[in-house]
Amino acid sequence: MLNFDQNNFMKDLLIKRFQYYKSLGDQTFTQLSEEQMFWKYNEESNSIAVIVKHITGNMLSRWTNFMTEDGEKEWRNRDEEFINVLMTKSEILESWEKGWDCLFGALDQINEENIHATVYIRGEAHSVLDAILRQLAHYPYHIGQIIYIAKMVKNEDWNTLSIARNKSKAFNAKMKSKFSEDSLAENSSPVCYHNSPEVRDDFQDETRH
Predict the structure, then answer these.
(1) Tens digit of each residue's pLDDT (9 = 90 or more) over 104-141
(2) How far apart are CA 97 and CA 95, in angstroms?
(3) In whole angstroms, how far apart are CA 180 and each of 25, 50, 92, 175?
(4) How far apart are alpha carbons 209 and 204 in whole angstroms?
(5) Per-domain residue ranges for the chain?
(6) Are 92 and 48 in contact, with CB atoms under 8 Å apart?
(7) What mean pLDDT is predicted for residues 165-194?
(8) Of the candidates 15, 32, 98, 205, which lies 20 to 30 Å from 23 by C-alpha distance?
(9) According to the model, what pLDDT value does residue 170 have?
(10) What is the spatial distance between Cα 27 and Cα 29, in angstroms, rounded to a whole number?
(11) Residues facing 141 on adjacent strands
């Protein structure tokens, strides 16, 4: 069983990771015109608008009263999430923010007393931590789709959100010059929490102990 400090540290890491994936979506939307938000490859594909509508529907269902109600709410109609009713880019972004506000509001309720409590999704029991990890896998899956669609419509005008093509060696050299060998030895992966740019400053000192 994790102690109080460890639970808080885990909660902070989870929030940071969700914030990171939200930021990828935010940075993608700033590059897109209203028309591009509704583009889709073919009739069987989803537009970014539809994917956002689905993510929001999932978030509102999963995280509204998540400690006391099943995460698949009776009022949710998942099938309708894939029928677009959003008409403008501003409506898409408003929907996006509404879902994330619900998620972060729920995460803020987590403490050392309830992080291992049991919650339900479609009647299936999960620990609170497992329910969070389930969605931490689900949302980046769809955000990856959003980014992929955006890269198709932007083509050569796309501004990368990760290491630029053919720039890995330069990026690695920059990272190695920035951090000590001791720090790299603890966690050498650029995508892990300790070495991830968006969380390193907050948590590097703590993870050394």
Answers:
(1) 999 999 998 898 899 999 999 999 999 999 999 999 99
(2) 6
(3) 32, 44, 43, 9
(4) 9
(5) 4-161, 163-209
(6) yes
(7) 66
(8) 205
(9) 84
(10) 6
(11) none
Residue 120 phi/psi, 5° resolution? Answer: -130, 140
The token pair that represents 76 in the structure block: 């949710």
Burial class (CB within 10 angstroms; exposed 0-12, middle 13-18, buried 19+) of 126: middle
83 vs 131: CA distance, rounded Å: 26
Do 140 and 28 meet the contact criterion of CB atoms below 8 Å apart?
A: no
Q: What is the pLDDT of residues 34-73, one digit of tens each?
A: 999 999 999 999 999 999 999 999 999 999 999 999 999 9
The pLDDT value recorded for residue 206 is 42
Q: Would you say 194 and 187 are in contact if contact means Cβ atoms under 8 Å apart?
A: yes
Side chain identity, residue 66: F
Question: Which CATH superfamily, name and number, covers 4-161?
Answer: dinb family like domain (1.20.120.450)
DSSP output for 72-96: S-TT--GGGGGS----SHHHHHHHH
